[in-house]
Amino acid sequence: MIAVELAKMFRRPRTWVTIALLNALPVLVAALLALTDLAPRPGEGPPFLSAVLTNGTLYPLAALAIVLPLFLPIAVALIAGDAVAGEAQAGTLRYLLVRPAGRTRLLVAKLISVVAFVLVTVLVVAAVGYLVGQVFFDVQPISGARATGGTALSGTSLTPAQITGRTVLAIGYVTASMLGVAAFALFFSTLTDSPLAAMLGALAVLIASSLLFTLDAASSIAPYLPTRYWLAFVDFFRDPILWRDVVRGLGLQAVYVAVLLGAAWANFTTKDVTS
Amino acid sequence: MAARGQRSGAARRWLVVALGVAVLLALPALIGALPASDAGTSATDLRDRALASADVPFSGYAQAAGGLALPVGDQLTPVADLLSDRTTMRAWYRAADDWRVDVVSATGETGVHRDAGGTWTWEYEEHVASRAAALPLALPTAPDLLPSALGRRLLSEAADEELSRFGADRVAGRDALGLRITPADDAASVSRVDVWVDADSGIPLRVQISGGETGGSEPAVDTSFLSLDLTTPAASVTAFTPPPGADVRRDEQQADLLATGRRADAVRLPDSLAGLDGRTLDGTPGAVGVYGRGVTLLAVSVLPGRAASALRDTLLVAPGAVVDDVGVRIAAGPLGLMLVDGGERRGSWLLAGTVDLDALAAAAAQLPPRRGDR
User: Fold this and answer.
1) Beta strands in B67-173 (DSSP E)
2) Parent domain of A233
3) By CB distance 3.0 to 4.6 Å, which of A47, A101, B182, B324 could disulfide with B107?
4) Where along chain B do its domains lie?
5) How confident is the model at residue A146 (pLDDT cuts 50, 70, 90)?
6) Residue range B295-312: mean pLDDT, rounded
7) Range B117-146 burial, b when 16+ CB lie within 10 A, else e
């Protein structure tokens, strides 16, 4: 059933159109930066963007930072919100459930295909970012006597191997950060027959969370907001790595995924399926 | 029949989910409610232990929150930000002259590396590394707000009768014993300083300063470790070498301070001001005087005419400013600031410290006239 769901998702043109659109913005930003040579002042704009003019190796991270606040969650909410509600709307859900596999397994299969989508999306954004970085910007030599790698936020020099390793960690962390969004959308998807409502519900949660995070009055609940630790992937580029927020971010996402999946399971396995 | 079975199944499932959520929600509160054990250490012993902790190495993560809106112009923006914002710090401490404090923000950081000869300050956003010699008197920077540094500094000059104990708490997951300083000086604007001292190592883990307008429940400055590790950090962590391509500079703060001092060398400052005794700090320029003790301090210095007029314009429009013949004075929490006008060419006196507005006025009246006044 998992293989069926995965194949179904990746055969859909919509999946690939979403991923392609997601890559459009970082490519456009890179092209504009390369043409005008105007990088944002350090400390302004998305993280790492100010550094890419001198070191294109960092562009995968800048690309992720560009899509992380809005575009990536929208794409994830779109796919996850469609998972169950989409089948219901198309009238195919009851045929799916006729199979003897059971509703819990269907839910797990849907979740795994959403996770696969998140992973593929993040990897494609990073890969396109890497290519764009190599094409548009100066790149520090990766090997040889003059290999410098780059500078960590803390002012220490990182070897190219360190940069690569930390980029991989950051990609993994961004993927994990998206799981909370996916869980929200999947849960809403079991509540409603409208994929649009499920997606907008998940986005409403995210926008509320981002807004509350900026509010000093909400600082007591800030550690529990799903978007609280999203930017912690920057911490991989401090020296020594600051694990505190990364660990908290992973734990928080795990809690959201567990609770929302539990709710989705409790709701979906006993739901009257009418369409 | 089937419908009822399905309903009870749904209820059971929702019950499982609800129980799980309840456990998860209760966990932080339960951990926070872990009781702290209070050793029967006396206040003076606890102070001595805190002061002796200067050679205990550690690494930690701390947050400082200041509630002081300092009405100063562009020149002192970093200081004003420090006292009004939330500052997140990572610290590695090997010895009094071998440590590093990074102020981390969402997208960058500023690191201060101390070695035997002075400090390196690395600003990632500007890509600048600046070297400064160790100064006996300098403007406050983020490392001064670290609970260990601030706590030891405030406790170092507290008299025995100003100290008292209050309970114990858990700070950074450790048992911390409460130690309170209630300043005895009449001029004091700080009503109390609460220091939580680690029962194990003596390192101050949390410091709260209360007083002034904000006095009451909200502390004016609240700084606390969120995690602390007593293993010695590696020497390579605190060391600093400017990275290739960085803009390397010398910090001019000391030169500025000394230049101001030389210009006003002729002025002799009184031995005491507003009932506070003067103190000598080695290497302090002649025209900067520091008075008081412990948490009640008053600094007096000559401000060149140009800087003074800019500051005066800012102070005059600040809410709560008191303007009279002597000058303009203002209080931000327990911090008092006063500018005694000397005119465009002669420069002005700047008084700043943790004293109340009456003490500032009294001190201003005791200052010698500036050269041009005679």
Assistant:
1) 86-95, 98-104, 109-115, 118-123, 128-133, 163-171
2) 2-268
3) A47
4) 43-248, 252-373
5) very low
6) 79
7) ebbbbbbbbbbbbbbbeebeeeeebbbbbb
Report if residue A90 sits inside a domain. Answer: yes
- Architecture of the domain spanning B43-248: Clam (2.50)
Mutation for testing the B interface, residue in A107, A146, A154 having most B CBs under 10 Å: A154
Domain B252-373, classified CATH 3.30.200, yes or no = yes
Higher pLDDT, B356 or B255: B356
Residue A237 lies in a domain: yes
Let me know if residue A181 belongs to a domain.
yes
A42/B108 Cβ within 8 A? yes
Domain count, chain A: 1
pLDDT at A10 over 70: yes
What are B197-225's pLDDT values in tens digits? 999 899 999 999 988 764 456 788 899 99
H helices present in chain B, as ranges:
2-32, 43-52, 77-84, 147-156, 235-238, 253-263, 305-317, 357-366
Tell me whether residue A274 is in a domain.
no
ipTM of the complex: 0.81
Q: Do A266 and B245 touch (CB under 8 A)?
A: no
**Is A156 in contact with B243 (Cβ distance < 8 A)?**
yes
Q: Which residue of A has its CA nearest to B121?
A: A155
Q: What is the pLDDT of residues A46-72, one digit of tens each?
A: 777 777 777 777 888 889 988 888 899
B-interface mutation test, from A64, A153, A273, most B Cβ less than 10 A away: A153
Give the closest residue to B198 by CA, choosing from B219, B178, B175. B175
Give the minimum alpha-carbon distance from A216 to chain B in angstroms, rounded to a whole number: 10
